[in-house]
Write a structure and sequence with these properties.
single chain, alpha+beta, seven-stranded mixed sheet, 16 strands, 24% helix, globular, binds zinc ion
């Protein structure tokens, strides 16, 4: 795993190798797993924030790249095994790996196997959106270069608005979407569009958070002992928990800020646990009120 000699990648690999963290919701258990580490240019990740500020939080390498995770969540219950998100997968080209770091063996299939599960044991995958760093893992490439569904027994749920816009390629960059990530599933009839905000059954629902993409959905998991919101890219990093701290990749930054404000207010009021999509160090947290600030909510790590 990882690329020897790249200190940030080595640090990311060490983090991945740590004991996986599990949250007990009574009737289900949610385990944080890695979809692979990512190195991204820190500038666009931090949007309007100046480098002297963000570089204290996420120290860049000499090429200005910062260490990111592609966090995924495995939920086990009497209804089966569910996976939220799938990371970049194993189809990145060498050129893409030069830009984004990581390496092909370092992907969600191996993370599942490392904790005693197989991709074929997953019953359902739920995606926040279809960008490659979230949906790339749902279709994998075999040793002959053939694409096939990674989770061969699973249906994959995605927001219908997101799927429509992904087909049209609506995004800030021309390569925001890659139809290789869903074609093999679509051909098998295993890609299921769901309405924004839909109840997905068995304690899962979409929580609309448009802005990063127009169809972007966070995923709300309701257990007997509490709720987890998997944020997706409306709130990818611990330090971006301020409404107007957007990424340059967001198609509608003002809408994203509104989505984030609503999410943080409700997460605080209803005491949700938040799982952040790309945070390498503090991926699991809560939102608490801090009166006196112009935006009176802050994140706190959950141990
Ligand atoms: Zn992302």
């Amino acid at each position: 795993m990882g690329i020897p000699g790249f200190p940030l990648v080595e640090r990311g690999v060490q983090r991945i190798m740590k004991e996986p963290r599990t949250i007990d919701l009574g009737d289900r258990a949610a385990t944080l797993i890695s979809g692979g580490i990512n190195l991204m240019d820190g500038g666009p990740m931090m949007g309007i924030l100046p480098r002297p500020l963000w570089s204290q939080w996420y120290p860049p390498d000499p090429e200005n790249r910062i260490l990111l995770e592609t966090n995924c969540l495995l939920i086990e219950s009497e209804w089966g095994k569910f996976l939220i998100e799938s990371g970049c997968g194993n189809k990145l080209t060498e050129k893409e790996r030069r830009f984004y770091g990581g390496s092909n063996p370092d992907w969600v299939g191996h993370s599942l196997e490392a904790i005693g599960h197989t991709p074929s044991s997953i019953n359902r995958v739920i995606l926040t959106h279809l960008h490659t760093d979230h949906a790339g893992g749902i279709v994998c490439m075999d040793t002959n270069g053939i694409d096939s569904p990674t989770f061969c027994q699973a249906t994959v749920l995605v927001c219908s608005t997101e799927l429509d816009e992904a087909r049209l390629g609506i995004g800030i960059t021309p390569n925001a979407y890659d139809d290789r990530n869903w074609k093999a599933l679509e051909n098998n009839g295993d890609l299921i569009p769901a309405a924004p905000g839909a109840d997905l059954g068995m304690g899962f629902s979409y929580y609309p958070t448009p802005g990063h993409t127009n169809g972007h959905q966070s995923v709300l998991i309701t257990g007997a002992k509490g709720k987890i919101l998997f944020t997706g890219d409306v709130l990818p990093l611990f330090r971006l928990a301020v409404p107007y701290y957007n990424m340059a990749f967001d198609v509608a930054p003002v809408i994203n800020a509104q989505s984030k404000r609503r999410l943080l207010e409700q997460a605080c009021r209803e005491e949700w646990i938040l799982v952040l999509s790309h945070e390498p160090d503090v991926p699991i947290c809560r939102c608490v009120e801090k009166p006196g600030k112009s935006f009176p909510f802050v994140l706190q790590p959950v141990d």
